[in-house]
Design brief:
Strand 12 and strand 13 form a beta hairpin. The protein has 13 helices and 25 strands. 44% of the residues are buried. It has 566 residues and is of the alpha+beta class. The longest helix is centred in the first third of the chain and has 22 residues. Strands 4, 8, 9, 10, 11, 12, 13, 17 and 20 form a 9-stranded mixed beta sheet that branches. Strands 1-22-21-23-24-25 form a 6-stranded mixed beta sheet, sandwiched between helices. Strands 5-7-6 form a 3-stranded antiparallel beta sheet. The structure holds adenosine-5'-triphosphate and magnesium ion (3 copies). One magnesium ion (MG) binds next to strand 17. It is found in: Cytoplasm.
Length: 566
Amino acid sequence: MANAPVQRMSQLMAKTLRDDPADAEVLSHKLLVRAGYVRRTAAGIWSWLPLGKKVLANIERVVREEMDAIGAQEVSLPALLPREPYDATGRWDEYGQELFRLKDRKGGDYLLGPTHEEIFTLLVKDQCTSYKDLPVVLYQIQTKFRDEARPRAGILRGREFLMKDSYSFDLDDEGLARSYALHRQAYQNIFERLGLDYRICAATAGAMGGSKSEEFLAPSEAGEDLFADCPNCDFAANTEAISYELKPVDGSAVPALEEIPTPDTPTIETLAASLGVPASATLKNLLVKVDGEIVAVGVPGDREVDMDKVEAHFAPAVVEMVTEADFAGRPDLVRGYVGPQGLGEKVKYIADPRVAPGTGWITGANKEHTHARNVVAGRDFEADEYVDVVVVQDGDPCPKCGTGLKLDRAIEIGHIFQLGRKYADALKLDVLGQNGKPVRVTMGSYGVGVSRAVAALAEQTADEHGLVWPKEVAPADVHVVAAGKALQTEVALDVSEKLAAAGVRVLVDDRAGVSPGVKFTDAELIGVPQILVAGRRAGEGVLELKDRKTGEREELTVEDAIARLT
Ligand code: ATP
Ligand code: MG
Ligand code: MG
Ligand code: MG
């Protein structure tokens, strides 16, 4: 590969900012904008500037190498997709408000792909006809579209974002298990190479359907997932994936299911009463604070609530999300999880995580129910929307060994699924088996949040001065700073050329009229792993090398610096 040319800051489109963007809530958002990596185009829609694009490309390269290594073949499918395959699997409707739907000039329905199970299934149906054609694993690195309800965390949750999605097609369960294991290992390699700290956690299948699924979660305060880690055994799970037997908060015995009355119009109060918990304990679907007071907005279904609508409904009162802190010292609050069921109907799930699925019924907001202050399903939100709140608490027993679980926030950076035959059944994907009879294909699907990984890395590695990239993803290997006058600039450019000739990726701050102090601050903000300064002693051929992460500095001759960096 040809050596990369030296990148000159004087020519680079990367304007650094001293102040955090006003709308930024999380560190990665602030730093990636301030360091000139990305710019916001609209809510949840981002432009990648030269430095950001380099980091993104490095992550793509690592993902590609590891996918290729397990025999996956790269393809590129469209993002603009016809409705029909998504009708066949039911996802045109099931996906709810997150799906971007659009019409063409003839009135035909289309969508912008949020994930591509249907389209890959049809591709394989077209291309693979015999058992000899399987197994096959296909992948793409592609822009995905999801109309996220709260795209508030910068690159972490885009409405347009880059995902590596892959799909495996096998003849039998053993084959699927093998493809799944290969991906699991590839993902470990990817995240280790990227320098991300992560845990593999049991997960629920969500909108994808299917059986086994695991998430790769990167511990971070900025994360929107909560996972439980057992300090004693290997158990780790997204709290969404943990369910317990019913255990009222006062510790009393659990009523048998048949003893739980099921009134015609179940309400939160009647359910709470039947479970022997205070009415205010409220087995709620969505908890929000309205002017500081916790209220429930019943929103059953398998969807995210449209917070804008809830906010509009309560206006001018201030609506905020309930956080972990709101539960502290409030044993009367039971944290609830609601299954994907209709409003106020008798259903398979109960609005409490401590009940195994398939055993009870839920409540929902309805017109008579004031706790919800007259929020009406169908008017204020789709009747089948819901948001699940926290389901497991710190110290709850590990389902495997009983030890108290430790809860941490995390960013979901990858997710692997054994789908089984859900999509193959819906779209009739068969191949001819060895005995001449058709065999229904079994599938897996696997995603890495490529753009999200940029932000997750920033969250995990940044310090108070700015970004700190691991070498594999950094936009350059060394950031050369010309700290002084013409002489320093000359030395800096000269050493930059020599480093580049030796294959080192160099960013050089050759800007005229910018003070050394500003250049140092910018170098720290931008986060290239090594900073090489041509300063006071440049005339004697002595430079200073600083490790961005450890802050260690040392003076070196130009020759030694080049030897060290190559
Ligand atoms: P989340 O729970 O964060 O909404 P998800 O479970 O809906 O994510 P998947 O359908 O499992 O996401 O997609 C695979 C991967 O794509 C995720 O593990 C995540 O890394 C990434 N991803 C999903 N949604 C987004 C988004 N809005 N912005 C950036 N990356 C995303
Ligand atoms: Mg999602
Ligand atoms: Mg998820
Ligand atoms: Mg997921």
